[in-house]
Amino acid sequence: MGLKKHFLKNQLEAGTDEAGRGCLAGPVVAAAVILPKNFEHPLLNDSKQLTEKQRELLRPYIEENALAFGVAFVDELKIDEINILQSSILAMHKSIGKLAIVPEHIIVDGNKFKSYKSIPHTTIIKGDAKFMSIAAASVLAKTYRDEFMRKIDLEFPNYCWKKNKGYPTKQHRDAIREFGITNYHRKSFRLLPEQLKLDL
After folding, report:
1. Which residues are annotated as a binding site for a divalent metal cation?
2. Fold of 13-150
3. The pTM is what?
């Protein structure tokens, strides 16, 4: 079952998705992509099904062939201030705002979104496994976020972010126990299962 090209025919449609919602550290990153009608790439699928190498191969292809794309970051301070759901929506709004072309319709991965300006939108659960533009957005969001996590890993190598990308792996949690938290950690998240509240 291949990905569908669009949700609405004959509309300039942007797909949007985010990466990093479930992480303990780092930003949430969103992308928005408008693809041409004839866009095709054999690898393009839900980015969670792709290897890191495949996503890295897809990224330049998407950027070169999309009609427009935008990528936006919302950092951990904002996440702590307004919560992760609002931050995910904010990142998607910011990425749509960076598109060089204004879309006529927006399709969103997931089931939560707030209207962007007055552009109609449709939320689609598992949209990144159903529609090409959302899948492309998911690849961009993930590759930009992974690149950022690899960069800050150099600053804080103890947490192994180049591998876990800030997700709550055992290794990441063990490092928090041993070394405490960094300025990139989301203080509003339950960083360790045994800590209901962090002593800050």
Report:
1. 17-18, 109
2. Nucleotidyltransferase; domain 5 (3.30.420)
3. 0.94
